Amino acid sequence: MNDGGLGETAATAIENDGSSRSRRTGRSSGRRGKRAGRQNGFTQPAWKTIVNPYAPAEVLNPEQIERIHDASLTILEEIGMDFLLPEAREILDKAGADVTPGSERVRFDRSMILEAIANAPSEFTLHARNPERHLPMGGRNFITSMVASAPNCSDTDRGRRVGNQVDFRNFVRLGQKLNIIHMFGGYPVEPVDLPPATRHLDCLSDFITMGDKVFHAYSLGRERNLDALEMVRIGRGLTESELDQQPSLLTIINTSSPLRLDNPMLTGIIEMARRNQAVVITPFTLSGAMAPVTLAGALAQQNAEALAGLAFAQIVRPGAPVMYGGFTSNVDMKSGAPAFGTPEYIKTAQIGGQLARRYGIPYRSSNVNASNCVDAQAAYESVFALWGAVTGHTNLLKHGAGWLEGGLCASFEKVILDADLLQMVAAYLEPLEVSDASLGLDAVRDVGPGGHFFGTEHTQARYEKAFYAPILSDWRNFESWEEAGSETATQRANRVFKQLIQEYEAPYLDPATAEELAEFVSKRKEEGGVPTDF
Amino acid sequence: MNDGGLGETAATAIENDGSSRSRRTGRSSGRRGKRAGRQNGFTQPAWKTIVNPYAPAEVLNPEQIERIHDASLTILEEIGMDFLLPEAREILDKAGADVTPGSERVRFDRSMILEAIANAPSEFTLHARNPERHLPMGGRNFITSMVASAPNCSDTDRGRRVGNQVDFRNFVRLGQKLNIIHMFGGYPVEPVDLPPATRHLDCLSDFITMGDKVFHAYSLGRERNLDALEMVRIGRGLTESELDQQPSLLTIINTSSPLRLDNPMLTGIIEMARRNQAVVITPFTLSGAMAPVTLAGALAQQNAEALAGLAFAQIVRPGAPVMYGGFTSNVDMKSGAPAFGTPEYIKTAQIGGQLARRYGIPYRSSNVNASNCVDAQAAYESVFALWGAVTGHTNLLKHGAGWLEGGLCASFEKVILDADLLQMVAAYLEPLEVSDASLGLDAVRDVGPGGHFFGTEHTQARYEKAFYAPILSDWRNFESWEEAGSETATQRANRVFKQLIQEYEAPYLDPATAEELAEFVSKRKEEGGVPTDF
User: Fold this and answer.
1) How far does A493 lie from chain B, in Å, by closest CA?
2) Residue of B257, B262, B346 whose CA lies nearest to B312
3) Total domains present in chain B
């Protein structure tokens, strides 16, 4: 794990030589939108958003879904939820909820919940500063995002370390470079070497200047939300009212399960929904710990918490873009450790989708695993998670590339592994063509029994684009593979991530915009940033 | 790869000390049928066959399936297939097929094909010598089998070597020991140190004496088929006519794609179908090589070859148990190397299931990958293959545990990895209970906002069996995992496979049966075995 300093050298070199320069000068690559396929040696499919053409998995029958729905409304009616923020309770009181005086508890008539969420749009667009990167959310769309919120990061050259700005920026470079990654779902790794009061200014500035994709803003205090709204407005060159019409930011709201929403989360819902920005309500319901040990019970609680948050957002601003987040997994009952990519996870990811569709609200799930290194476990847990997410008709896949250790580490090699997995999912979701030409009876006739198709015209006309070309899979025979050094997929991923960071170029940013953004960041830093004691 | 001789020592010790002795003495373990859960330290779910409760994936719509169906019948009508065995052409000529005189080519009216396969049973039972191991085939049943037919094998202690009897027997021990493995689909590894003329006698004898599960007989010449039929009859203690009533053997018939069935395969269909034993017709249609480069074309050819073989088996004996085998994958068009577990593979596995259901014939698919070691690639390609197989409603999963290198190597570590994957699939296929008890509203009420579910009665009553307990997944935090040696899943699998071989005990076999079988093997060896020049 510590046998090379190359990673650091390369990363540092790029850091001093890449985005910072282009950000400061506003240098354009001049090739925006034309780049696909081979870029300085790395071949990838062109940027596109993904549509899932297949029917969703239905793990539960409609009656079972109704029982979970009904149980969750009973929870909200009889037990209620704690809303810690007084402002939130005032809003809910005015809207007709049962707010217990002198307490944080709020109970909801089921009709109140259902009427509120009926205002939620079933589809909406998230706007990027590059119009080619706008993202359709909901419906049959499958949108991916980078790993988010890991406190640590790792690569196999240098091992595991605490998050920092150099690594943060290299993850941003990878997320921008990889066409299969549609957006940033948060800080890939937390740059703890940056001061907490101004960290969000640096990170959001990096998202805007080093990338041109949609990004996420944390709800960790009102001032951070307001800064993010202003920065995305500047980055996109919008007026305030234009921003109100164009959802351009997304925030993840995690409930403090069981049945609580805390101050920064409620503030985030208020500030973001008020400005018509996307709010994703994701209960953190680990079955056996913060939720019942039974999956049905955990899902009922997930649904109650999600509906309460969604209803609150719709009460703040009817019609504001929202998403239903599913994150129910289980814990290892021997150790209490969270588990991901388990059989239980596949089911809850699929049932979460059924519930979200029950309400016509876009659905968020994740690409997760609990392995401590990029090994077979990391791979199989991730693909099981993708199985649940894809067949569950996830609209937004959080932690799409790079998650490790149940979220405690962002791995550079795992980014590449996951990019390959996601590219495979995208290829799988391409509908199969069944036509006279693709059935190819003439080719079968020409080749006949015992022949070979390699040389036929039917093959020659199609072979270059016939099949998915993987990033990592090595299909050589054993002898060739052994002679070349017996590399594992993880070792190959190590080479690829370093190559991609080297090849990264900052996307075009209008110099005036860059200057306005830099001035805003500078001004806010001079003001001292934001409170850190919320 | 060569840093330890332990594997060999352990394996040899067991070989000299385990099954051979118990086989010769007919020693009973005395605990047959009572063993489940923890056995000398290894915990696994009890033996059970698996039912898939979810709806199958429908990648193509019914019209598209009909187009492939129609194209395949056109292939059989206009192009035809080469049947190399004169006896087979005579049978088909009598049945009304268009057999070109002086040629191997046979063409079929579409009605002839459809009428013949209409006799195929949609479900049947494969009988083991232990009645608890009988296997329901077809319908919603999901039956798994061990890796088969690898010429090489490997473990990470000793690396890769050519197949041999010691390793063969250790794979048999693992396949017998693992409850998630329902049957043997062929020799896990080819024991090339055994003389070809009598190898099948030793291997089949091992299946019967070292295991009590259903097994497969190769169709590599009439005499081998007849020996296998006699040996399974002896092993099960049946009369000839009883065997005719009870399918107890399975044979895989691969077409020589494109559009050919060779002598041993046709002989195998004749001998096995004639005795009412299970015949699985599996075209080996690698898109871009032995089949069109388009998946639709490859599937049309797969379907044509499968229907021809299935129809032939039904003409030999109407109502004989058969299965529709799907094995369509793609090749790497740069190198010609076969690829497995690709996006293309998921689709063809699912569409193969749609076609098999179109005809009401049980479906066979596989757990495949093309990695050269047990790394992330081996894991993700395998889970993608399982995704296709499971959602495609596979009834028989070939190569369920141990396949590596596109079938050129059987890996001991991969057996354990796959057993874990299959156990996870089985847990995923357990229907979720939605009831008042599982919804657990009382537990949610008791815990309330901000509480914890670990200590509740609802949790305490259920936690031991609430979630799948993995073989390999390590969910400890990074620090604990690192302190314990930073093992990968593959390193853990290495320990587990050796432990299981150590713990293996031969299942009970009636001494008289053992003696009769040994006498048959001895007599056939004295006779010189079988021809090897077919």
Assistant:
1) 10
2) B262
3) 1
